[in-house]
Specification:
Layout lengths: L5 H13 L2 H8 L3 H15 L4 E3 L4 E3 L1 H26 L6 E7 L4 H15 L3 E7 L2 H9 L5 E6 L7 E8 L1 E5 L20 E5 L4 H7 L8 E8 L2 H9 L5 E4 H5 L9 E4 L6 E7 L6 H18 L2
Parallel strand pairs: 3-4, 3-5, 8-9
Antiparallel strand pairs: 1-2, 5-12, 6-12, 7-10, 7-11
Helix pairs in contact: 1-2, 1-3, 1-4, 2-3, 5-10
Length: about 300
């Protein structure tokens, strides 16, 4: 009996996640033709179609969905086997595939990576920026080993290691009526319109819920793709926003005319590391969490 390979199963999971051959191939770091060939071979082995293909869309068959779900668990278990072997050779060694949301990782890792290279020269860290939903899916499928995300977000049965709370400040252009030497609260922002990141970014939801009882709303005419873009729009006087303290401490408003006003009564987001409970590298991830906490504390000094 010929059995499917892990590589073929990874191709199937990527296609089920992306529903697009090009994006699935990019996720697997292969060409589209390689991915298509691997999936055809998998269908030949199983003797059944797993996806319906047209020129414009991909639709998984019910069998394809079921096999993809089981393949995710198998891939995660296979990754845990590799991690178990790596833990026997020492702490923070071998390959680690880390995923991070774009509003956290870029403000911590550029400063932390030199320390990691000096202290753990045998660690090969690969970092990927994605939105939270994709990071969690990649972790469950074994594509990622550990992820850096912000709560609240539904994480199911993942192991979570809290790192720090990330509060906000109000960012405005010079001369705005809300600029104050004292901290302002939710009532001051009632009925204000905020420039925010585009939907899909957890920070977009977190910023809107920072003041649960405030009726601030999102400016529907514009959505930024990154925090630097958001800062540039605010600096031009096109609106106001809430910026996370992590980004501010890392210098996202440095060399700009942005005015920052402290806030009180906010609900900060909680930044955490997350990994599969079955992972054999929990101690590695907790050590990494400690290093990230230290780096965050350095930013604030």
């Amino acid at each position: 009996m010929i059995l499917p390979t892990l590589r073929q199963l990874r191709f199937l999971v990527a296609l089920a996640d992306e529903l697009h051959f090009g994006r699935a191939a990019e996720t697997c770091l292969v060409t589209q033709s390689t991915l298509s060939t691997g999936l055809r071979e998998l269908e030949d082995i199983l003797g059944a179609p797993l996806a319906e293909r047209t020129k414009r869309s991909v639709l998984m068959t019910p069998l394809g969905e079921e096999i993809a779900a089981r393949a995710r668990a198998m891939l995660a278990e296979a990754q845990d086997i590799v991690e178990l072997a790596q833990t026997q050779s020492g702490t923070l060694r071998g390959t680690m595939k880390l995923g991070t949301i774009p509003t956290v990782g870029p403000f911590l890792f550029p400063r932390l990576l030199p320390r990691l290279r000096d202290s753990y020269p045998d660690l090969r860290l690969y970092m990927r920026e994605e939105l939270t939903e994709h990071l969690i899916a990649g972790l469950r499928a074994g594509r990622l080993d550990v992820i850096l995300i912000a709560l609240p977000f539904e994480t199911g049965d993942l192991e979570l290691e809290p790192l720090f709370e990330d509060d906000y400040q109000l960012a405005t252009a010079p001369g705005h009526r809300l600029i104050s030497d004292r901290a302002i609260g939710g009532p001051d922002l009632d009925d204000e319109t905020l420039l925010l990141l585009e939907r899909g970014h957890c920070l977009q939801r977190h910023a809107l819920s920072a003041f649960p009882d405030t009726h601030a709303k999102q400016d529907e005419t514009f959505a930024a793709t990154s925090l630097p873009t958001l800062v540039a729009m605010v600096e031009e006087g096109l609106g106001i926003t809430l910026l996370p303290q992590l980004a501010i401490d890392a210098g996202v408003t440095r060399n700009t005319d942005i005015q920052l006003t402290s806030l009180f009564g906010t609900k900060p987001r909680e930044v955490v590391l997350a990994w599969r409970k079955s992972s054999a590298r929990s101690e590695d991830f907790r050590l990494l969490a400690g290093l990230l906490r230290e780096e965050r504390a350095r930013l604030g000094t």
